[in-house]
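call fold(seq) -> tokens
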Amino acid sequence: MKPMNEEHLAVLRRHMVELIAIHADLASEELGKATLDERVMASMRRVPRHRFVPAPLAPYAYQDMPLPIGFDKTVSQPFIVALMTDLLAPQPHEAVLEIGTGLGYQTAILAELAGQVWSVEIIEEFASHAETLLRDIGFSNIAIRVGDGSRGWSEHAPFDKILLSVAAERTPPALLEQLKPAGRLVLPLVSEGVQFLTTIDKDAAGQLETRKLIPVRFSRLETV
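ret:
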């Protein structure tokens, strides 16, 4: 059988986005809405997820499921990537901090929508691979460094938005400090042993408002 070409892959991406829309509709009671932002959906149609998984798994890249990428880590389920991006609502003028680059798929989605993405990854091999891949695809508004994500990236703070692609027992204080007033942080937060997708909004006075949504399953935040 001959390999899939770009046209085939584009069709599969469109089908993936249709499945994301169905999933969002089914979860509308928990989410408080039935559709995700069209800007987010358009970015999911554009970014080639098959480039962000190991080559043997490329044929499965557009199924709505997580896929292993090595080091006991996964690239997140497309619906969850879309939902977290929708909740974060990155804007073209904003700077976004991402914790947990992995191979860079979520990073690419954020970079499609934000002005600048700063991403921190603790596994050096992931950071190096993601940096090369994202540059080759054509992204110029992404910077990646190797380090402890719980400490954020103070040199470029404060950030308009912060997204964690890893689960935390509690929100790292450094990240709350590096979040701008009127900013938002999205992360999987552990509550009574269960991870919940959570949004944290900081108002102009620095007060925090937390909203817990659906249960999720992510790798844990690693610190050094």
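Residues 6-26 form the longest helix (21 residues).
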